[in-house]
Specification:
Chain A is an alpha/beta fold and 409 residues long. In chain A, 46% of the residues lie in helices and 18% in strands. Chain B is α/β, with parallel strands linked by helices and 253 residues long. In chain B, 48% of the residues lie in helices and 14% in strands. In chain B, 54% of the residues are buried. The chains are: A alpha/beta (409), B alpha/beta (253).
């Protein structure tokens, strides 16, 4: 292995020796395809025929009128097959697995979206599939567990640690160190050891490529700002990459503010003082950790943002001043989601709704001839249990009670 | 010097034993009693693991020991203090085992200086390959501490030689794929792998992962210098208490 995969001081590959050869193999396989136009074409065709690409860029006229500022566009990653941008990464890695000749895939999942996407890809390509999911997430995302199992994946609830996404990643690595001969680990976000941050960003860059073309076709000019929620950072890297070289376009990443940045109950690595630079899960970035270097509990209403680390590429872009980071609280997220549903008939995932919060705060101050793009990374109907609770919907509650009674009988 | 000590000890014994504990687990009192007992039972060197919340190379037994120690409030400073205490009490070498973030947050230089002042001999940092470890290796060199590097069955011969260039004291050979605490097949494959390890370095070799009984140690005699017993003694303390450790260690060779 060579020392590589650095973005200023962030990234790297802090690997146990047993995995060095596996990562060398992966980096070589990725290097062989990343600049191969034939591979990209195969990928684009697959995404066009299997996953609704290119996804539309929707002008949100009612929201634009409501805020009375810049024109709000929404990039519709929710229309991907399986309902989120996760499909972009997973299908790309699926093609790579085929080239590497492996027959089994494993993945971690938080919200369950990446798990469902991976299980879908495995079914389509004929791979065996095991998904690691924190026990807490298994509880709050049961519908996704159901679908993963129907798709033929084995879902393993992780009962160690804080029982959420980071613990699922640790377990996936533990599986991989035993089974790397036939197994590829489909990491779901732009984190982890090199080449994962680069590889995941590469497959997600399809979002930004499309969005840039689409906004130019519609507005004949670049947007003033682009908003994306940031968990691990893959959807943000995806859409930002299309505008990275356009200095006039402000890029805004929105983290999970949870119950507030001073509450201790959030997952904000890049705009809270609770995070510090460290090395865990094989890479160097900002982590929510204590002064001893132990990782801390995180909280978000959105399971997919509930992660201790963040893409090393985003840590670099923050320090370089290229991306601005903000945080949205659970409460504001629910309000923004409700408004978007009512005004536009769109149901953003709770994760994506973080980006909407910040865009709504800023839209009134943006000139009406300017455009904003929000990345709607996923659709929110998967969040029905969480959202119904947050909306305190009495009809839903009665329905669940009746349903439970029926099962009891 | 660690290498010299190991060679000398090997003049007297045909295989050495290295044992492992997770610091502060199940308690500080127990940790001290386990070390005292192991040394009295003839252990030749010991690995002291500083707990970390994300011990990625460890299996379920050591993972839970790490978590429980952290829940009990184990701190890095207390671990360093403990290292000083046992190094003062006992004539055998002690090395730390922990993950890189522990050193990184503490300050790599301060950590290594602290190790040296405490009378420790070296460290195993499984998620820090030499490619990422410039600062660590310089600090270790300055303090005459031994960075212990790891060979695995997937390590190429070229890489084994590369790692040997940075390794001091001994090389830790991982017996198989996977994490700590799973079964290992002590087989011809393992013997061939150890022959590859032997050819790549002149340093003493340790073999760990899955060593849990006398038959395993017997298999390793003549093939490596040190047998490493990790998870098995943690299981033993959990099921039979500290008192069972002495007879277990004495029964290994």
């Amino acid at each position: 292995m060579n020392k590589c995969g650095y973005y200023s001081q962030f990234g790297g590959a802090f690997l146990p020796e047993i995995l060095v050869a596996t990562f060398d193999e992966l980096a070589t396989a990725f290097d062989a395809v990343k600049d191969d136009p034939g591979f990209w074409q195969e990928y684009q065709t697959l995404m066009a025929t299997y996953s609704c690409r290119p996804t539309p860029l929707t002008l949100a006229e009612n929201l634009t009128r409501h805020f009375g500022g810049g024109r709000i566009y929404i990039k519709r990653e929710d229309l991907n097959h399986t309902g989120a941008h996760k499909a972009n990464n997973v299908m790309g890695q699926g093609l790579l697995v085929k080239r590497m000749g492996k027959t089994r895939v494993i993945a971690e999942t938080g919200a369950g979206q990446h798990g469902v996407a991976t299980a879908t890809m495995a079914a389509r390509f004929g791979y065996d599939c095991t998904i690691y999911m924190g026990e807490v997430d298994v509880e709050r995302q049961r519908p996704n567990v159901f679908w993963m199992e129907q798709l033929g994946a084995e879902v393993v609830p992780v009962r160690d640690g804080t029982r959420i996404l980071k613990d699922a990643i640790n377990e996936a690595f533990r599986d991989w160190v035993s089974n790397m001969d036939n197994t590829h680990y489909v990491l779901g976000t732009a984190c982890g050891p090199h080449p994962f941050p680069e590889m995941v960003s590469h497959f997600q860059s399809i979002i930004g490529q499309e969005a840039r073309e689409q906004i130019l076709a519609r507005e004949d000019r670049l947007p003033a700002r682009v908003y994306a929620c940031v968990g691990g950072g893959s959807n943000a890297m995806g859409i930002f990459s299309g505008f990275m070289a356009d200095d006039g376009v402000e890029l805004v990443g929105v983290e999970a503010g949870g119950r507030g940045l001073d509450s201790g109950a959030h997952a904000s690595r890049l705009c809270s003082d609770d995070a510090a630079i460290g090395v865990a899960q094989g890479y160097k970035t900002y982590f929510l950790q204590d002064t001893e270097g132990q990782m801390q509990e995180t909280h978000s209403i959105a399971a997919g943002l509930d992660y201790v680390g963040v893409s090393p590429i985003l840590s670099h872009l923050k320090e370089a001043g290229r991306v601005r980071f903000e945080a949205a609280t659970d409460e504001d997220v629910v309000a923004a989601m409700r408004l978007t549903i009512r005004k536009e008939g769109l149901i953003p995932a709770l994760e994506s709704a973080h980006a909407f919060v910040q865009a709504f705060k800023e839209a009134p101050a943006v000139a009406p001839d300017q455009a904003l793009i929000i990345n709607q990374s996923g659709r929110g109907d998967k969040d029905i249990f969480t959202v119904a609770d947050a909306f305190e919907d009495p009809g839903w509650r009665d329905f669940i009670k009746r349903k439970a009674e029926q099962y009891k009988a | 010097m660690l290498e010299h000590y190991l060679r000398q000890r090997r003049q007297e014994k045909d295989i050495l034993l290295m044992t492992h504990i997770v610091l502060g687990y199940p308690s500080w009192e127990a940790s001290l009693a386990i070390v005292d007992t192991m040394v009295a039972a003839g252990v030749d060197l010991m690995e002291l693991q500083i707990p970390f919340s994300e011990p990625i190379a460890d299996g379920p037994v050591i993972l839970r020991a790490n978590q429980e120690a952290l829940q009990r409030g184990v701190t890095v400073a207390r671990c360093l203090e403990f290292g000083r205490e046992v190094a003062r009490r006992h004539p055998i070498p002690f090395i730390y085992m922990t993950y890189y973030n522990i050193l990184y947050r503490y300050g790599v230089d301060q950590f290594v200086d602290g190790m040296a002042e405490s009378g420790l001999q070296g460290a195993i940092v499984p998620d820090l390959p030499p490619e990422e470890g410039d600062g660590y290796m310089a600090a270790m060199e300055k303090n005459a501490m031994h960075p212990i590097f790891i060979y695995s069955p997937t390590t190429s011969e070229a890489r084994m030689r590369y790692l040997a260039g940075y390794a001091r004291g001994f090389v830790y050979c991982v017996a198989r794929k996977g994490v700590t605490g799973m079964d290992t097949r002590f087989s011809d494959d393992l013997e061939n792998y150890l022959a590859r390890c032997r050819a790549a370095t002149d340093l003493p070799l340790a073999l760990g992962f899955g060593v849990k009984e006398k038959a395993d140690v017997d298999f390793l005699r003549g093939k490596v210098d040190i047998a490493v017993i990790g998870t098995q003694t943690i299981r033993l303390v959990e099921t039979q208490g500290v008192a069972a450790v002495e007879a277990f260690i004495q029964g290994l060779r």
